[in-house]
Design brief:
The protein has one helix at 7-18; strands spanning 24-26, 41-43, 54-58, 66-70. The chain is elongated. The chain is built from 1 helix and 4 strands; from the N terminus they run H-E-E-E-E. The chain is an alpha+beta fold.
Length: 79
Amino acid sequence: MALPRWAPAALFAVVLVLLGLRYVAIVPDREMAPSLFPWDIVLILPTEPREGDIVALADPLDPARWTLRRIKSIGGAAS
């Protein structure tokens, strides 16, 4: 017997709830395209950022929201 079509989405929703939505962000606009598109779901992992990574920062206007940005250079190194 095959699983229903909605089973993977339901499992993913359960995982998000278990994470407490603390480390999950939903892309709100096309600002990060073509890497990320609106409504993409991003898991935020606490690791050491490297050049080219996408990082999540607290939005300065609304600290309850995340802002996603790509790292262009680290430590003043121009690329």
